[in-house]
Amino acid sequence: MIVFWRKIYAKHDNVKAYTLLSPALILVILAMAVPMALMLSFSMFTQVSMMEIDYTFTFQRYIDFFQKNLLVTLLIKSIKISFLVTLITLITAYPVCYYIAFYVKKNKMLWLVLLTLPFWTSYLLRVFSWKIILGTKGVINSSLINAGILSEPLTFLMYSQTAVVITLTHAWAAFALLPLYVSLEKIDFSFIEAGRDLGLSRFEVFWKITFPLSLPGVIGAILIIFIPTVGDYVTPALLGGTDGRMLSNMIQAYFGKINNMPLGAASATIMLTTVVLITIIVSNVTKRLTQRLT
Amino acid sequence: MNNSFIQINNISKHFADVKAVDDVSVEIKEGEFFSLLGPSGCGKTTLLRLLAGFEYPTSGNLLIDGTDITALPPDKRPTNMVFQNYAIFPHLNVEKNIQFGLRKLGLSNDEIDKRVKDVLSSVKLEGYEERFSNQLSGGQRQRVALARALVRQPKVLLLDEPLGALDKKLRDEMQLELRTLQKNIGITFVFVTHDQQEAISMSDRVAVMNDGKIQQLSVPNELYKNPENIFVSDFIGETNFLKAETKSSDGEFINVSIEGLGEFKIKNNLNIAANSSDVVCSVRPESMMISKVKSDWDICLDAKICQTSYLGEMTRFYVEAKGIDKIITVSSQHFDNQSFENNECFISMSLEDISLLNKK
Amino acid sequence: MNEKNSTLLIYTLLYFGFLYVPVLFLPIFSFNDANYMSFPLAGFTTEHYEEMWSKRNLHKALWASIKVGVVASVVSTTIALFAAKAFARYKFRGEKISYGGIMMPFLIPEIILAVAILVIWVNLGFKLGLVPVTIGHTLFCTPFAMLILIARIEGFDFSLEEASRDLGENAWGTFFRVSFPLYLPGIVAALLLSFIISFDEFILAFFLTGSDATLPMYMWGQMRFVQKLPHVLALGAVIIVFTTFIVLLALWLRNVGQGKAKKDIAIKL
Predict the structure, then answer these.
(1) B100 to C157: CB separation less than 8 angstroms, yes or no
(2) Do B23 and B171 fall within a single domain?
(3) How close is the nearest chain C Cα to the Cα of B213, in Å?
(4) Nearest to B89 among C160, C170, C173 (CB)
């Protein structure tokens, strides 16, 4: 009998793998998949009153969402802000990765560790710190006023979309840095040298050789920044004001003060769908771009 | 002595749609130094791992000393393996590495100590007990791996290209040491290598493998002198292949027409069909002779030297011979690259050094 | 790889400044004797730090965060260890899907996770509190611990495990005598980093703690009040120092005994 089971177990790598994998899969299914399925079905209900929920299935919540100007605006704004943050973070972080990948010879690890260290501190604290820096009585304004450069504080720096974008560009920089660095590091410097040797200018070498080869890292960075940013709550809540408010703030309200769980669930589902769609589009575009490369 | 100490019966191992080992059957004798030889991907390592228990056969079974071990996990088999990269535990010193497998044998502490001491002296590593893996050279690690496996006194020792990472001189020394060691302890060795010189010099018998199948299983002399097919002929030592066609058969001999050379009577060891063009003749470079004057051998041809490779102990000549449309390799210990002015020479071969093989 | 590029170097250093300055301001201003964070500094004081000893709510929140953090990190690291072994060691059908599935909590906006767990928890009739937070944190930390452990296991020489089996040890023996000792630095690193992630995590706690605050929740509450500002700064500064220390320790451990330091840092996508 034992021999029989031994044979089966020994024969199948699949069995061994899934035995090891089962706790993780169970966790994900019970703590994520099932709740999300429930959330999805909740988005089909109606909040009749403070305590009562009507459990008949309806798509009305989704119609409600798209009819509410505010919600649609917030969705678009969230996407817009995320897009901006992604772009700016990428552009500002790229040169740094480039430098470390190609110009640092010793202790590359040290540079990377130092670069990513700030991001291990609490996100909440970092956002708070930006609040201090950008505020009307904050570091930037008080220094500029004291130095005589300004007579009045710059108000657009706080409680605005600008504040949100600046803070988020800082918040997600590390996540952009790592995949970018990894793909840049893989590029053989001799490609670049060959390009110069063949007469291309520095810029041409970058645009035609380096950048395309770093695309996988760029795409990775894009997804890593974009996805969490769309759903960010803390930054808009602490320093977005009205102008910088994003969809998650509204979702939180639906689960809190406003108490309309179904609508909140629907909004969350819509946010998730948007994120998934954009991921799929970006992945497919990447595939086509990288196919042309290889 | 048990002539089928290890029985490998119709063993196959498939990985997805790749047949790594394809219906192989072998019987290995007790106390034999048996080698599995072949290029990478031929299945030799897979076969070894099947013996060790790290792979489970798709079909077939394995017996050692009469017991069916097919379903046994590696820790329950009477085999021990010396790994290609030695697999010395980095967190244990040499002594603890060697003792590692003795825990489960239920020996007393005194016995364990004695065994460890003995095996360390047989691999000439006395005094190295406290060292760790990163304080040892490649050759020393290899000996620790050997000691660790031998100390358990297995019925069969499996060696997976153990000398591959060593430099040439060390490798040659170790080859001799392993051979001597094996003869002294008398354990059956199954040795995997891609180096045909190594296999031929160390083994009692060699199984040449390719594409998951055994191409030929013989003692080293036979492999060299009488290869049974093109693969073995090409793999073991060097050879020249000549286009040929068989004509009529004549008892033990057969008439063969060799490109550009004419018709000759060759010994037909492999029972090759008559009137076939699916054949080839093979002649080894060292059995041919290069000379400045015509010789009286069976075949002697005018030739022109295209290239030479001076190897110190011998020289290889790459020649164009009259009538043959490819470059022929002849090796000589007599002449060297300085010997022939204006590259003109004669090459000679003897009929009994020409092998007839099927074009697979 | 020959010339130096000073423009890039300067830019890089400036960028470093951009990254570090906001983080460094907290400790700087925590010693400031004023309620506003402006230059010039008013005066040096440690009163904001001394204050922390007396705040009972702070202590409660700290203790809650530690409890949640320890449980979440231990459970997620254990689960991740087995999962990492499966991915690093075996090729099996459904590998990519399983991998994607387990990495999912990492790849979607956290708020969606928070909302989903909230919905099911409340509808199952359970009260909000530290338990759902712990579950959420475990879910969130697992993919992360798994990444660390996969990198560690992939750098591990499997023939060591085979050698152990060959020498007579069964699977459990092999794990305890060979694999575990060699994985240990990686495991500790994963534990520490998961703990930090849980310790600092806000959104899941925000939605799921109800009235039992974790430390980030406590800080959130304090951030609303201007007078409490310095208090938050002091607390923040302490947290920053603490987490930095633990992270450095974890990163060092992660590379102990491994040659391939560079590969370890790659986040595989």
Answers:
(1) no
(2) yes
(3) 25
(4) C160
Among B80, B91, B105, select the one facing C166 at the smallest CB separation. Answer: B80
- Stretch 177-216 of chain C: residues touching chain A, C-beta under 8 Å: 196, 199-200, 202-203, 206-207, 216
Give residues with Cβ within 8 angstroms of C3, minimum separation 6.
none
Averaging pLDDT over each range in B64-78, B251-265, C92-106, which range is the top one? B64-78
Query: Which residues of C fall within a CB distance of 8 Å from A123?
Result: 200, 202
Instruction: Give the helix/strand (H/E) hosting B306.
Output: strand B299-310
Residues of chain C contacting B152 with CB distance shorter than 8 Å: 167-168
Say what the ipTM of the complex is: 0.81
Do the beta carbons of residue B208 and residue B235 sit within 8 Å?
Answer: yes
What's the CATH number where A191 sits? 1.10.3720.10
Q: Identify the CA nearest to C197 among candidates C106, C115, C131.
A: C106
B315-321 and B279-283 beta bridge pairing: unpaired
Q: Which pLDDT score is estimated for C259?
A: 44
Task: Give residue C258's pLDDT.
Answer: 53
Q: Assess whether B18 and B35 both reside in one domain.
A: yes
- CB-based contact B290:B344 (threshold 8 Å): no
Do the domain assignments include residue B1? no
Q: Report the range of poorest mean pLDDT among A44-53, B132-141, B233-242, C91-100.
A: A44-53
Three-state SS letters, B165-206: CCCHHHHHHHHHHHHHHHHHHCCEEEEEECCHHHHHHHCCEE
Q: Is residue B113 part of a domain?
A: yes
Question: Looking at the structure, do residues B203 and B332 belong to the same domain, yes or no?
Answer: no
Q: Which residues of A touch B56 (CB under 8 A)?
A: 7, 10-11
Instruction: Confirm or reject contact between C39 and chain A (CB < 8 A).
Output: yes
The Cα-based distances of B183 to A162, B33, B188, B203 in angstroms read 82, 9, 9, 11
Whether the CB of C19 is below 8 Å from some CB of chain A: the reply is yes
Query: Of A14-28, A88-102, C59-73, where does mean pLDDT reach its minimum?
Result: A14-28
Asked if A2 has any chain C CB less than 8 Å from its own CB, the reply is no
Domain hosting A221: range is 69-293
The answer to whether A205 and A196 are in contact (CB under 8 A) is yes
- Please check whether residue A24 lies inside any domain of the structure: no
Please give the sequence-ordered ranges of beta strands (E in DSSP) within C9-103, or none if there are none: none
- Domains of chain C listed by start with CATH number: 56-264 (1.10.3720.10)
For residues C188 and C149, what is the distance between their CA atoms, to the nearest angstrom?
Answer: 10
Does the CB of B100 have a partner CB in chain C at under 8 Å? Answer: yes
